[in-house]
Amino acid sequence: MLNKMSQQLDFLQRSLDLRAARAEVIAGNIANADTPGYKAVDFDFAKALQAQTSQQNGSLGMALTDSRHLNGRGSQAAGGELQYRSAVQRSIDGNSVDMDIERAAYTDNALKYQSTLTFLGRRISGLMDAIKGGQ
Amino acid sequence: MSLSNVFNIAGSAMTAQSMRLNLVASNIANAESSTSSTGEPYRARHAVFTATPVKADVPQVAGVRVTAVEEDTSPFRMKYQPGHPLADENGYVKMSNVNLVEEMADMISASRSYQTNVEIVNTAKTLLQKTLQLGQ
């Protein structure tokens, strides 16, 4: 039963972790908008989430020797494989940060973080309803 | 906590940009200085930004730091002013090599970058607050 509950929350929790990691990456890009030679990086969110959810029983996981054991997993570093963004307009100092793209990506990421939070909140209140039996 | 790192990154950028803004102020204030403590006219100063990783395992994710303040090596501006006490035999005075147009552009760039980073911090703050209220 507990296992089922954690499964319900697991996906959204991983998704939140990744969103936070992406916010960090994009904040780094924006911070370095004026650093000569800095190359903007980002990761593919969908791919990273897929990789995280498919590795649920990864090598760091604890062995389950009884069906009543909790599914103990080692926490992996959140974040996908970082790739350099291809610059639309190169600047002469070798910096490839495009402020418009980064701002848009950051806002988009923040909005999706909030949506995931809402989904998670609803799921929690749904589970609470189930626990209380509608009382 | 990944989102807390956003504060470090954007904070480092704000520090760096305000330092750049300080240098611009110093340059503009001294645009007409024909002498200084070194005896030479004032040389424009520029900040050197360097990306500094916030986490050892992902060096690509970086904040920013001012690692050096370099003096502009471009030649001094020669101003014809025969009555000036520092004028040479031809009547020219060596003035600072500050380029006001460049400085103004630099100032706008620095202030825009600073504003952007403030917004980044604000957004991250909102996200963290909402996360704290999760499940209530």
UniProtKB/TrEMBL annotation, chain B:
> Can you give the residue ranges of the Flagellar basal body rod protein N-terminal domain?
7-31
- Tell me the keywords, alphabetical order: Bacterial flagellum, Cell projection, Cilium, Flagellum
What is annotated about its quaternary structure and interactions? The basal body constitutes a major portion of the flagellar organelle and consists of four rings (L,P,S, and M) mounted on a central rod. The rod consists of about 26 subunits of FlgG in the distal portion, and FlgB, FlgC and FlgF are thought to build up the proximal portion of the rod with about 6 subunits each.
Species of provenance: Vogesella oryzagri
Q: Output this protein's name.
A: Flagellar basal-body rod protein FlgC
InterPro entries, sorted:
Flag_bb_rod_N (IPR001444), Flagellar_basal_body_rod_CS (IPR019776), Flg_bb/hook_C_dom (IPR010930), FlgC (IPR006299)
Q: Which residues form the Flagellar basal-body/hook protein C-terminal domain?
A: 90-134
Where is this protein localized, as stated in its record? Bacterial flagellum basal body
NCBIfam families per record: FlgC
Transmembrane segment boundaries: none
Q: Which Pfam families match?
A: Flg_bb_rod (PF00460), Flg_bbr_C (PF06429)
Q: Does the keyword Lipid biosynthesis apply?
A: no
